[in-house]
Amino acid sequence: MSVKLRLSEILDELSEEELKKFQWHLVNGDDEKKISHHYLEGASRQKTIDKMFAKQAWLRKKEELKETAEEALQETTAEALQETVDEALQETTAEA
């Protein structure tokens, strides 16, 4: 059974008041993991699950982009360092 279907079964067991409390926790949770109140206001159980998955996908993509940027920065820094070393070697060779 997929995670979404299992979550749907769990949320289907909640009363409306319990669902609202669950959504409140999603809105007021960890800063990075929060879901905007706007997206959950009046949201169905399935819409709530979709927003949870969308948020997780966004967080994963954000982490992937961060890693890619860090790798690119490392490559750029390594290339710049290599160019500096090459230039210094050329200058040293030219002076000799």
TrEMBL record:
Pyrin domain: residues covered: 1-87
Domain of life: Eukaryota
A Pfam family the protein falls into: PYRIN
PROSITE patterns per record: DAPIN
Protein name: Pyrin domain-containing protein
Source organism per UniProt: Chelydra serpentina
Lineage per the UniProt record: Eukaryota, Metazoa, Chordata, Craniata, Vertebrata
